[in-house]
């Protein structure tokens, strides 16, 4: 039969790499708890109109990248989520979560976009995100940026820069949009086909072009920040002041617009130069009108999402590798007849918090294998100790504990009282 393989751009995450994912996720959970953000989990499949309405009909995601299909049972239009914010907002609205005040939430999980797979960018990719809903003040914008900044420190990442911009409010954006379209109409001769297509439907996205031939024209285009009113500028200045007070460096990027239509006021990205063209590892901003667009009562919100694959790639680049977990001990069992007695001891050790890997041959009919082969596998496992359940030891009611990593003498321990010596086997966690 033909061998079945994974869909292109949708990758298996195998040990030992999966340990790096677990390590990152645990760091995130610990940090989110310190900032009082609580976990939310939403479905992978959502109604297609949720993303069309929330992200914008003329965004790249909606136009080109969504995995959408019709439910065969009822004809409903469904989509594998391409991002999580719209789903989080839908859940908050559906369950009336803001009835007693704002909520700080975070999520982890897979997203799906049909695009060309490349380094750190896949068709099934994973995001971790934070959303603060029901809070309108600039201090929450700053807090959520500080949360992401703190995560880089937790992970040991360096050389990540922060870019900021403000998209203002809808009336300010409309005034800028009119000026921008008038400017673009005068420079159609240097615009590529994609830019001309977007000129009227989504002119802000023209500013985000990567086409070198358009850079001079784009750099001279009207800047949205020059159209901001007093309130929007005051909001933005407060965000910057809080970041300054906390020693967080930033720069203004007037072309930073983000890929979704739901943003207003503060937008930001954390960027590295070490991942080539996929340099943005985290981005977000304020989206005060999305809750109402999705059918809820108007309420402000701000959030960000990071790309897990990109962050892990950056960890590799910076040699800030996550620790690779290994068992504390590896059980060497010369005689299969001893397995019932041995496994009683192993279960007791595991209940006491010791991570134990038991030797198990591929073919039990051939016995447990030689001591030499078992020790070879014990060493390859990364365990710090070998637990030797030889016939002589078992006859004395004991097990030999042999260090495999840090030197030291092997000792015998009584089988009857593992609680007395289990702690000596445990690695710091």
UniProtKB/TrEMBL annotation:
Main location: cytoplasm
UniProt keyword annotations, A-Z: Aminoacyl-tRNA synthetase, ATP-binding, Cytoplasm, Ligase, Nucleotide-binding, Protein biosynthesis
Catalytic activity: tRNA(His) + L-histidine + ATP = L-histidyl-tRNA(His) + AMP + diphosphate + H(+)
Source superkingdom: Bacteria
PROSITE patterns tied to this protein: AA_TRNA_LIGASE_II (PS50862)
One MF term in the entry's GO annotations: histidine-tRNA ligase activity
Residue span, Aminoacyl-transfer RNA synthetases class-II family profile domain: 24-334
Region annotation Disordered: where it falls in the sequence: 405-429
EC number: 6.1.1.21
InterPro entries registered for this protein in UniProt: aa-tRNA-synth_II (IPR006195), aa-tRNA-synth_II/BPL/LPL (IPR045864), Anticodon-bd (IPR004154), Anticodon-bd_dom_sf (IPR036621), His-tRNA-ligase (IPR015807), HisRS-like_core (IPR041715), HisRS/HisZ (IPR004516)
Top-level EC class as recorded in UniProt: ligase
Location in the cell: Cytoplasm
Gene3D superfamilies: Anticodon-binding domain, Bira Bifunctional Protein, Domain 2
Matching NCBIfam families: hisS
Subunit structure, interactors included: Homodimer.
Family affiliation: Belongs to the class-II aminoacyl-tRNA synthetase family.
Name of the protein in question: Histidine--tRNA ligase
Lineage, highest ranks first: Bacteria, Pseudomonadati, Pseudomonadota, Betaproteobacteria, Burkholderiales
